[in-house]
Amino acid sequence: MVWPDGITASPDGYMYVSASQVSAAAMFHGGKAENRTPYLIYRFKPIAAGYISR
Fold first, then answer.
1. Given pLDDT bands bounded at 50, 70 and 90, which one contains residue 20?
2. Is residue 54 part of a domain?
3. Is 50 domain-assigned?
4. Is 37 inside any structural domain?
5. In this structure, are residues 19 and 2 in contact, taking their beta carbons and an 8 Å threshold?
6. Of 16, 9, 18, which is closest to residue 52 (Cα–Cα)?
7. Which CA distances in Å does 8 have to 29, 34, 47?
8. Closest Cα partner for 38 from 14, 7, 2?
9. In terms of residue numbers, what domain contains 16?
10. What is the mean pLDDT of the chain?
11. What is the mean pLDDT of residues 19-45?
12. Is the dihedral of CA 27, 8, 49, 42 positive or negative?
């Protein structure tokens, strides 16, 4: 995962994490963007149960 953020859990027990590649943005590399498609969202079911909150 490159720069995971946007973590959320769903009522059906899955967790979703977006990998936005912010660390590869142009502002960190002398004005040249190094991020590449596809931009991914990972979906998985954690081993331990979680809980939904705000």
1. confident
2. no
3. no
4. yes
5. yes
6. 9
7. 29, 26, 15
8. 2
9. 4-44
10. 87
11. 90
12. negative
Confidence of residue 54 (pLDDT cuts 50, 70, 90): low
Closest CA to 12 of 52, 54, 53: 52
Residue 33 resides in a domain? yes
Entry field: residues in the chain: 54
Residue with tokens 């590649």: 21
Q: How many domains does the chain have?
A: 1
Angle subtended at Cα 19 by Cα 39 and Cα 21, rounded to the nearest 5 degrees: 75
Task: Say which residues have a Cβ less than 8 Å from residue 16's Cβ, sequence separation at least 6.
Answer: 6, 7, 8, 9, 10, 41, 42, 43
- Find all residues with CB under 8 Å of 29, minimum gap 6, and list them: none
- The pTM assigned to this predicted structure is 0.69
